[in-house]
Amino acid sequence: MQTIEMSGTKVLVLSAQGVPVATEADGNDVISEAFSAGATLVAIPVERLGPDFLRLETRLAGTVFQKFVNYHLRCAIIGDVTALLEGSKALRDFVRETNKGRSIWFLATIGDLEARMARENT
What we know:
Blueprint: E1 2-6, E2 9-13, H1 24-37, E3 41-45, H2 60-70, E4 74-78, H3 82-86, H4 89-100, E5 104-107, H5 110-120
Parallel strand pairs: 2-3, 3-4, 4-5
Antiparallel strand pairs: 1-2
Helix pairs in contact: 1-2
């Protein structure tokens, strides 16, 4: 885990290895880490998500993402979710809609996050 500055925003970047975000409590731990680091955006590699996180019927993603929004934290899921999108129209719609907003994003690379942040802060 590291904290970096990106377009004037402090970003907590989780490593690909580590405890997966597989429960609501795990999401709370990430939020706590972000506050401890003074970050306002968290970049989570898709590899760190538990196997059910993006299965929308579990409601885990919605619950965790809502907490991010409630605490005025932004979250970027970084990595390739193409295979998951192919298997779920609901997830495709969810990703498309969240990417239109300012709080939750799904991006392929950390470079894509940097570009998005540059656009958001201009």
